[in-house]
């Protein structure tokens, strides 16, 4: 994992905004909260909500913001589910997320070149994120954010390594030791397709991940291409910051015995979220399914336990986890 310079964009959220959770509720009433008209609810299940709304509107001794009251009711409904990955997003938050994803771009402080169709590190700059991540001259970059560099030209590779300020990029590196260290530490995950492509690059095994919905129905995602690195020796680095799609990759490679998983137990974020837009630009993000490894191990709230458990000591100048991974070769 290599952190791009500067700061402040955290989790990748696919802004494909979703409205199914309260669809039945929203279809049964109309509201003009800006003009103060009464909400009309035709479903007896919401009579208590109507009663409370009317009471506050008529007797509360203070200013009422009906839009914020509505958002508060929606947020309370969503929060009552007790799922930290299901949330209501007000229009301001949706707008801010879009602006973050459209922010300025920075690199990782590393010069790269193309030689004999290989993408190589020339040198990391002193004090750069690339140096901090342990990149060395002549390291071969096999993939960028789980996408193979085989067909990339130099400009495409540079463009993919650069990214929104404060985000992180995952480089799959083959060092001079003759093996591949896939560093998924502090990788919060990304697109599911990227995880499938990464596993496809490393093994010809079939199922990459199972997606199980709340009805118990399962759907598999499978490898998609020729495993160009199938014969390369492999170690996967993980820690408690490895989450979501990163855990899918680690879990699949571990299930198939493709390489040792080294580090610490991963975060345990194995649920699938989606978002739907509500009519005024707000949104509800909800959990719709769970991910299972190829051997149908649960990821959510459990994580992937490494084959070799070792912590990195931040007080030492060396990276103990990387050194242990190199020792596997």
From TrEMBL:
Residues 93-164 form the PDZ domain. One of its GO terms (biological process) is signal transduction. CDD domains: Peptidase_S41_CPP (cd07560). Keywords: Hydrolase, Protease, Serine protease. Gene3D superfamilies: 2-enoyl-CoA Hydratase, Chain A, domain 1 (3.90.226.10), 3.30.750.44. Pfam families: PDZ, Peptidase_S41. The keyword Transport does not apply. InterPro entries: ClpP/crotonase-like_dom_sf (IPR029045), PDZ (IPR001478), Peptidase_S41A (IPR004447), Tail-specific_protease (IPR005151). It comes from the Bacteria. GO terms for molecular function: endopeptidase activity; serine-type peptidase activity. One of its GO terms (cellular component) is outer membrane-bounded periplasmic space. PANTHER family: CARBOXYL-TERMINAL-PROCESSING PEPTIDASE 3, CHLOROPLASTIC, TAIL-SPECIFIC PROTEASE. Belongs to the peptidase S41A family. This is Carboxyl-terminal processing protease. It comes from Candidatus Berkelbacteria bacterium Licking1014_2. The lineage of its organism: Bacteria, Candidatus Berkelbacteria.
């Amino acid at each position: 994992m290599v952190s791009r310079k500067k700061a402040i964009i955290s989790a990748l959220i696919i802004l494909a905004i979703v409205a199914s959770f309260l669809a039945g509720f929203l279809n049964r009433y109309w509201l003009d909260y800006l003009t103060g008209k009464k909400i009309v609810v035709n479903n007896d299940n919401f009579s208590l909500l109507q009663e409370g709304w009317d009471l506050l509107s008529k007797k509360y001794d203070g200013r009422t913001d009906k839009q914020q009251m509505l958002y508060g009711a929606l947020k309370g409904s969503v929060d009552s589910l007790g799922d930290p990955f299901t949330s209501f997003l007000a229009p301001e938050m949706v707008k801010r997320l879009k602006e973050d994803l459209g922010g300025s771009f920075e690199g990782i402080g590393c010069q790269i070149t193309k030689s004999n169709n290989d993408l190589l590190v020339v040198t990391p700059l002193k004090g750069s994120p690339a140096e901090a991540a342990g990149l060395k001259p002549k390291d071969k970059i096999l993939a960028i954010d789980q996408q193979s560099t085989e067909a990339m030209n130099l400009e495409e590779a540079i463009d993919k390594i650069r990214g929104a300020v404060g985000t992180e990029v995952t480089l799959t590196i083959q060092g001079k030791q003759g093996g591949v260290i896939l560093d998924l530490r502090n990788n919060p995950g990304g697109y599911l397709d990227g995880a499938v492509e990464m596993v496809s690059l490393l093994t010809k095994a079939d199922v990459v991940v199972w997606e199980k919905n709340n009805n118990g129905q399962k759907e598999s995602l499978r490898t998609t291409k020729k495993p160009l690195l199938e014969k390369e020796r492999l170690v996967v680095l993980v820690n408690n910051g490895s989450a979501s799609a990163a855990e899918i990759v680690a879990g699949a490679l571990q299930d198939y015995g493709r390489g040792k998983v080294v580090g610490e137990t991963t975060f345990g974020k194995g649920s699938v979220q989606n978002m739907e837009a509500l009519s005024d630009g707000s949104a509800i993000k909800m959990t719709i399914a769970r991910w299972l490894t190829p051997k149908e191990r649960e990821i959510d709230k459990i994580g992937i336990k490494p084959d070799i458990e070792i912590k990195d000591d931040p007080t030492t100048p060396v990276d103990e986890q990387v050194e242990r991974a190199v020792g596997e070769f």
